[in-house]
Amino acid sequence: MLKHIRRELIFNQTQLYIFAGYMIIFWIWVDWQDISFRFSLLFLSFVLPLFCAASIQAREERFKAWTLNCSLPTNRKTLILARLVTSWLLIFAALVFGLLFSALFQENPAFLSQFLELKSLLIFLLLSSLFLAFLLPFVIRFGLSGVIIGLVALQILGVITLLLTSMSGNKENILRSFIHSVINAVKFLLNHDPTPAYLLLLLVSAAAINAFNLKFSQFLFLRRDF
Amino acid sequence: MEYTVEIENLRKEFKGFTLKDVSLRIPKGYIMGLIGPNGAGKTTIIKLIMNLIRKNSGRILVFGKDHIRYEAEIKSRIGFVYDVPPFYEDLKLKSTASAIAPFYPEWNQQLFLKLMDEFELPLDKKLKKLSHGMKMKFSLCLALSHHADLILMDEPTSGLDPVFRQELLERLSHIMLDEEKTVLFSTHITSDLERIADYITLINNGKILFSKALNDVLENWVVIKAEKDLLEKKDIPGIMGYQKTEYGIEILTSDVKKARTLLPSDSITEKASLEDIMYFTNKGDNNA
User: Which one of A12, A74, A225 would you mutate to disrupt binding with B, by most B Cβ within 10 Å of its Cβ?
Assistant: First the structure.
């Protein structure tokens, strides 16, 4: 597995430099603007998987380098496992870097202690797993163009929903309800008492989501022709 | 005879193209040339061997083992050179090689550096700064640096200048001195193969027309030039294709001995080149 992780890191080194620069700017912004812990946690839960799954996979597509990767002495299942493991390594590296950065420069001591709570870390793990489990299979199946089309489709859906809402005069709509549901779910996760059963549930859920992500992504990757 | 690659009834269906139940065997220690026009199915066969695309049916054995079940083991003994070098263009050559090398147990860093030097490839240059020819050289350099037993080359000479083409062919001939190595070389530049191939497989429209020793082909295949109505008068054996010209008819036959006995005295027979064979079987007025 080490040679695979090494390969991923070397092949994506340009992207890693960009990512590192982006993370530095993000943590400077968080620390200097006194951005809330909750926002930072949610933001990172979505941005880090987005970088790891979409960006690395998109780079492979851009250079058509899947031909190279799939021609190496390995199999496709291992390639996907390596991508998932590398993604998590990068996610945790970015998180550790950010927390170290905050330890040095954050003026609000509560920020770091809240982030380092086991519950916060497990919620971060769960949300990142969820987003990664959506992104990785999606990018494998539909590629970079699929991501772009998906984002454009979401924008159009949003605009249409807003237009319909303003025309009907009704403040409630499906999109708003969905967003509220997500916010309420995250609030529930964050506000729940950190009982051992709850923490275990978070951990098991994250592990199950990752196991599903791995199997489903491998299934999709095995079916692709290059 | 021992075979490095054995393909049986291989079928792959695409929209608008089907590789039709291909069977092919590549003997160990020889160069097999895979010829055919663009879109004939040459790249599809190579991609199927490498498991880059999924077969619909059929069987592929490489080194006597199933190419999917023993994928990693088999690929560690294969060197590949594709028509479009599939590298991350913004990486330096040395970075690319350092990421790939650990995958090959037989990787020889000394040999790699020697080849890079011989091919005049700059280790510190990014791939996007290299010409197509230099990228092909780099591909070849990687393929040769891990002592591959099977080298798969898909149109390796297309887009290369004559000097490097010559160099590549000489290097392949040199590699073949080691009788353990096998090469599958797909191309539509047939003159390259006439110089180095031991066996030739002609594929057209997803179907293998023949797979024979090159000497057999060059000795027995002829183009007969005769009067226009020759085809109606005589039943020429082994007709693989013909074309009508302003002056008469040209027929490609795979059986020169029988054909000669049946031909009128004023007809001319010329040895068929691989290019003639490809032309007549593909673009002739009536290919067989």
Answer: A225
**Contact residues on chain B for A74, CB-CB shorter than 8 A:** 71-72, 75, 103
Determine the Cα–Cα distance for residues B274 and B35; give it in Å rounded to an integer. Answer: 9
For B237, the token pair is 């054996």
User: Which residues are within 8 A (CB) of B220 and not within 5 positions of it... i.e. 6 or more apart?
Assistant: B254, B255, B256, B257
Q: Check whether B38 has a pLDDT greater than 80.
A: yes
Distances (CA, A) of B66 to A39, A156, B1, B95: 52, 48, 19, 32
Number of H helices, E strands in chain A: 10, 0
Q: What is the pLDDT of residue B231?
A: 62
Rounded Cα gap, residues B153 and B184, in angstroms: 6
Is A71–B53 a contact, with Cβ atoms under 8 angstroms apart? Answer: no
In this prediction the ipTM stands at 0.82
Does residue B8 carry a pLDDT above 90? yes
Give how far the C-alpha of residue B91 lies from the chain's centroid of Cα atoms, to the nearest Å.
Answer: 30
| Model confidence, pTM | 0.83
Q: Measured between beta carbons, which residues in chain A are less than 8 angstroms from residue B87?
A: 63, 65, 68
List of chain A residues with pLDDT < 50:
none
Backbone angles phi, psi at B264, to 5 degrees: -70, 155
